[in-house]
Amino acid sequence: MAKANKKIVQSDKCTGCGICDSVCPINTKLEKKDDFDHDTAKLAIRVRNGSAVVDEEICIACGSCVRSCPVESLSIIEIAAT
Q: Are 8 and 65 in contact (CB under 8 A)?
């Protein structure tokens, strides 16, 4: 899937609820695999140490996590093309 010129960024408002992790389409696709292990899988977003962490290499910046965040901790920003 080709990435648009945008990325997900996070503020310090994150409460670590994990909703972003559960609504991410990349994560959902991986979770359907028989050998899925949440601790070792290359997820687009996950909660670590009480805060969401976005893996920019995997995230497609679709905005599902942004729309689902109950504390509006995540947002999409445009990035300059390189």
A: yes
Predicted TM-score (pTM) of the model is 0.84
Residue 64: domain span: 6-78
Per-residue pLDDT of 36-50, as tens digits, reads 998 899 999 999 999
Taking residue 20's Cβ as centre, other Cβ atoms within 10 Å add up to 28
| Structural domain includes residue 1 | no
CATH number at residue 74: 3.30.70.20
Is 15 part of any domain? yes
